[in-house]
Amino acid sequence: MDARELSDLEHAFAESQPSPATPLAANFRFPDGFLWGAATSAHQVEGHNVHNDWWAWEQAGRVATPSGAACDHWNRFRSDFDLAQSLGHNAHRFSIEWSRIEPEEGIWDETAIEHYREVLLALRERGIEPVVTLFHYTMPQWMAARGGWENPKIERYLARYAEHVLGRLGPHVRWWITLNEPVVQVFKGWLLGQWPPGRTRAWATALKVLRLMMRAHVRLYHVIHAFRPDARVGIAQHALALSPDDPRRWSDRWSVKVRGHLFNHLFIEALHTGALRVPGLFWERLPIARTLDFIGVNYYTRDFVRNSGYNLAGLVGDAEAAGDHRQQRGKLNDLGWEVYPEGLAQFLREYSRYKIPILITENGIPTQRDDDRWVFLFMHLWQVARAIADGVDCVGYLHWSLIDNFEWADGYKARFGLIEVDFATQERRIRPSAWRYAEIIRRNEL
Ligand code: GAL
User: 22 pLDDT exceeds 90?
Assistant: First the structure.
C-alpha cells in the first residue's frame, strides 16, 4: 500500500510502534487448529423475528429503526456461508432464536429446528465449525409477558428449550455459548432503559436478574453436557476496558475498580468459583462451580469512568466513551467508541488467570471506512498474537460481524460487516478488509 493511502489509524499505529518490525509484528504463527471466522446473532441478521420481545419493542416505537427484513439471512444463509468459505473461515458463530423454536409456550415449531439443522449442515459442508449461542438477548414474547428475566421460572423454561434444541441439534455442535453478554443486557435493560424491558435505575431488580442469569447458565451447562459430554460450553462476556477520567482522583480510580469488577469479572468469577460476591452487598453460592469450559470474550473499546458518589450507582460511576476528559484518547469509530487495541491483550491476560481456554467471540468496528476496519483488525490481531506469545491459551478469533446487520438501538447505520449489505436490494459485497483478513487466515500467520 502506498504511504499516502495509509489511514489515520494506520499512522497512529505506525507512530506508536518502537520500530517498523518488532519480532511479533511479522511472522507470528497462530496455534494449529486456531478458529478463524466471524459472528452474527439471529435477530440481527435473520429478518422478521416477529415472535420475540425485541420485535415488540421495535413495533412500540422504542427504537428509531425496526429490524424488519434485516439481512434476510434466514433465506440467504447458504450464499452467505459460501462467502465465508471463500474468505477461508473455518469457524462461524451464530445464535438460535428461541422465539422461532417455541413461538407459543410449549408449542414447538419443528420447521424452525429443521432450518437450523440445515444451517449446521451447510456450515459442516463448507468445513466451518459452528459456535452456537442459545440466547443472544432476545426471548419469545410469551416469556417476556411472564416476567422474562425477572421470573425465576425462566431457568426451567430455558432448560426445556435447550433440551429441545440439544436433543435434535446436539450431534452437530460441539461449541456452545449459553448467554450473550449477560451484564450488558442487565445494564441496558434495567439500568439505562434502552433495551427491553426498559427499566431505569432498577438496581435491586438488576442484581436479581443477574443472579437468575447465573443460575440459568449453570442449568444450561448441565443440559448441554447431558446430551453432549464432549461439548465445550461458555458464555460470551463483554470486556470493556476502563480508565479513570482523572487518574489523579482516587475516587475515579476506585470507580474503575468497582465498575471493572461488576462489568468484566463478576459473572465469570461467580461461574468459575461457584460463589457470587458483590463486596459489601451480598454473597451467594451457586449450585455448582466450574461451569465454564472456555471463556468467550467480546471486546470493542474503552470507557473513561468518573466517580459520582458513594452509593452503588455512584461507585459504578459515569462512563463516557467520547466525553471530555484529561486523557489521551485514540481515534473514535462511527458510534463514538474509542479504538483501543491494548485492551484486548489486557483482558486475554486477565482472563487467563482462570486457566481455561479463551475464544474471542466478538471484536469489530462500526465504520464506513473500510481501511479503518483493516487497521482495527490488524491491530487487534497483533494484540492477540502478543498475548499468545506470552502464554495465553487463546483458541480462536471471531470477528463481529460477517455481514452488516441490525445494530439494536442504533439500527442499520453502524456498519460492522466484513461483507457489505445493501439493505434495499440485499446484495452482498466483500470488503477489501475481508480479503486481507482472509490472507492472514490462509497463512495462519501475522
Ligand atoms: C455486542 C453484541 C452484538 C453486537 C455487538 C456490536 O455487544 O453481542 O449483538 O451488537 O455488540 O455492538
Answer: no
37-58, pLDDT tens digit by residue?
999 999 999 999 999 999 999 9
Nearest-angstrom CA–CA distance, 233 and 360: 14
Q: How far is CA 4 from the centre of its chain?
A: 34
Whole-number pLDDT of residue 3? 41
Under DSSP, the state recorded for 200 is B
| 179 bridge partner residues | 135
Any ligand 1 atom below 6 A from CB of 408:
yes
| Residue pLDDT, tens place only, 172-222 | 999 999 999 999 999 999 999 999 999 999 999 999 999 999 999 999 999
Give residue 416 CA to ligand 1 midpoint distance, Å: 10
Rounded Cα distance between 302 and 299, Å, is 9
Name which residue sits closest to atom 4 of ligand 1, judged by CA: 407
95 three-class SS:
strand
Residues 6+ apart with CB under 8 A from 209: 149, 150, 186, 189, 190
Tell me the HSE value of 121 on the side-chain side, using a 13 A CA sphere: 7
Dig out the grid coordinates for 337 from the structure: 467508541
For the four alpha carbons of 96, 99, 102 and 105, in that order, the dihedral sign comes to positive
DSSP β-bridge partners for residue 91: 37, 129
Cα-to-centroid distance, 225 and ligand 1 (Å): 27
The 10s digit of each residue's pLDDT in 412-444 is 999 999 999 999 999 999 999 999 999 999 999
Neighbours of 252 (CB within 10 A): 20
Residue with cell 498474537: 385
- Nearest Cα neighbor of 211 from 276, 255, 293 is 276
Which 3 state secondary structure label does DSSP give 182?
helix
Q: What are the distances in angstroms from CA 90 to CA 34, 35, 36, 356, 403?
A: 9, 6, 6, 22, 16
Q: Is the minimum distance from the CB of 335 to ligand 1 under 6 angstroms?
A: no
Q: Which helix (H) or strand (E) holds 399?
A: strand 394-400
At residue 293, the 3 state secondary structure works out as coil
Alpha helices in 276-368 (DSSP H): 312-316, 342-351
CA distance 274 to 80: 40
pLDDT tens-digit profile of 138-171? 999 999 999 999 999 999 999 999 999 999 999 9
Q: Tell me the C-alpha distance between 352 and 172, whole Å.
A: 29
102 is catalytic: no
Q: Which amino acid is at 2?
A: D
